[in-house]
Specification:
mainly beta; Pectate Lyase C-like; 5 helices; disordered N terminus; T9SS C-terminal target domain-containing protein
């Protein structure tokens, strides 16, 4: 009997460790290896040999042997397909605010390889956030605005930037093993910036895997409606929001990473995950689906040599923001180094009905100045009582990034998976 008890304890311990190791980004090996670049400013991509300009109205293929430069706003129209070979480099022109727009009905097939990714980057010798525009992909999946259609502003042609429709299962193509660097140029006559990758009305047949955005001046990933399925997304040291979902998006994001810096921020707000259903309530059709984001195995981390000091200095804000009239399922994820971990819009009434729409469970909250709060409030007893229930299985710790993750500070090949062998997670 004693031996049976020992075996049971051993198996329970192993299962508990394995369960904890499932939090944050996961993988038997470090899936960031080979295709990512955490020092993109030092990479030499060569000079442009081909120009992309105006409208691309027929099927076109970009090949690895050439380096392309996007001059001005380039639109893929007329249901054309833009195909890009693995290893191809596309440079955004800073002077003309180079931006690539895949219009509704057209497709982009940018399928890189782990050992040969496709790179969109700046043409400046000294690269910085906002050197060029970004990538806009538009589809005909539903959004929650009246009429089910909208258009992207951002100093683009409104007749070519409509999105939305009724085809949730549509495909706008493939983005796989793609890097987008130094995008987000400021919009002319506005305080806003372009986003590195904007997805408007994207259907769930669009393939979005292994995409890295680094040093964006605007948001890294903005999702306007649609039903995107996103996996292995990386947002690295962007000024804006890392992952933003709105306009009734029915989105799934899995096994993805956001690394922020205390010293990079945007006047429009900067956080890792931002979930809302609208920007203007009067434009929303409440008979349609409002935003629902299912986020699993996210790692949201603030890169700081002294997180405690940066928090006290007011350099760090919340990691996750949830607005009214939307839903979020956030599970098996890590939030490390924010103040606080999660903030609810102050228009959200704290009651069972609303809290059931915001499921935050099986989490690891590390070195956060507070856990879950309502915007503008210093009291969170009701939220602490609700999410503090053991059924939500939220773990708490206060350790440095070096202790928390496998190899956080590696300049070339960091590993942001949890290093649970270095500490014992404890419930609060």
């Amino acid at each position: 009997m004693k031996n049976i008890f020992i075996i049971w304890v051993f198996l329970a311990t192993v299962c508990n460790i394995n369960a904890q190791q499932e939090k944050g980004i996961i993988g038997s090996s470090n899936w960031l290896n080979n295709w990512t670049e955490f020092k993109p400013g030092k990479a030499d991509y060569g000079e442009a040999t081909q120009i992309l300009a105006g409208n691309i109205s027929e099927n076109t293929k970009l090949v690895k042997k050439d380096v392309y430069i996007i001059q001005g706003n380039v639109y893929v129209t007329n249901n054309a397909v833009l195909s890009i070979e693995p290893g191809t480099v596309i440079i955004g022109d800073g002077e003309s605010k180079g931006t690539l727009v895949i219009t509704k009905g057209a497709q982009i097939i940018a399928e890189g390889l782990e050992t040969d990714p496709i790179v969109f980057t700046s043409n400046k010798s000294l690269k910085k956030a906002g050197d060029w525009g970004g990538i806009v992909i538009l589809g005909d999946a539903p959004i929650n605005k009246f009429g089910n259609y909208s258009s992207v502003n951002f100093d683009l042609d409104p007749s070519l930037t409509t999105y939305g429709g009724s085809n949730a299962a549509s495909s706008s193509g493939v983005l796989k093993y793609v890097r987008i660097e130094y995008a987000g140029k400021k919009v002319r006559g506005s305080s806003e910036s372009f986003n590195a990758l904007l997805l408007g009305g994207i259907g769930n047949k669009t393939i979005l895997e292994n995409i890295m955005v680094s040093y964006a001046a605007g948001d890294s990933f903005e999702v306007l409606g649609g039903e995107p399925v996103m996996t292995k997304m990386v947002s690295y040291k962007s000024n804006g929001i890392d992952f933003k979902f709105t306009l009734g998006a029915q989105a799934k994001i899995d096994n993805s990473l956001a690394v922020r810096s205390s010293y990079l921020t945007s006047s429009a707000g900067s956080r890792c995950l931002d979930v809302s259903s609208y920007t203007k309530k009067e434009e929303v059709d409440f008979t349609k689906k409002q935003t629902l984001v299912t986020a699993t195995n996210l790692t949201l981390a603030n890169d700081s040599d002294n997180i405690d000091q940066d928090i006290k200095a007011g350099l760090v804000k919340e990691g996750v923001y949830v607005a009214e009239n939307c839903s979020l399922v956030l599970t098996k994820s890590v939030i490390s180094g924010f103040s606080p971990a999660v903030v609810f819009d102050n228009k959200i009434e704290i009651n069972d009905k609303n809290l059931k729409k915001i499921r935050i469970e099986d989490m690891y909250l590390n070195f956060c100045n507070g856990n879950i709060f309502t915007e503008g409030s210093t009291e969170n007893e009701d939220l602490e009582s609700y999410y503090g229930n053991s059924a939500f299985f939220i773990l708490y710790s206060k350790t440095s990034n070096l202790e928390t993750f496998n190899d956080f500070a590696n300049p070339r090949r960091p590993d942001f998976r949890l290093a649970l062998s270095k500490f014992t997670a404890a419930t609060k």
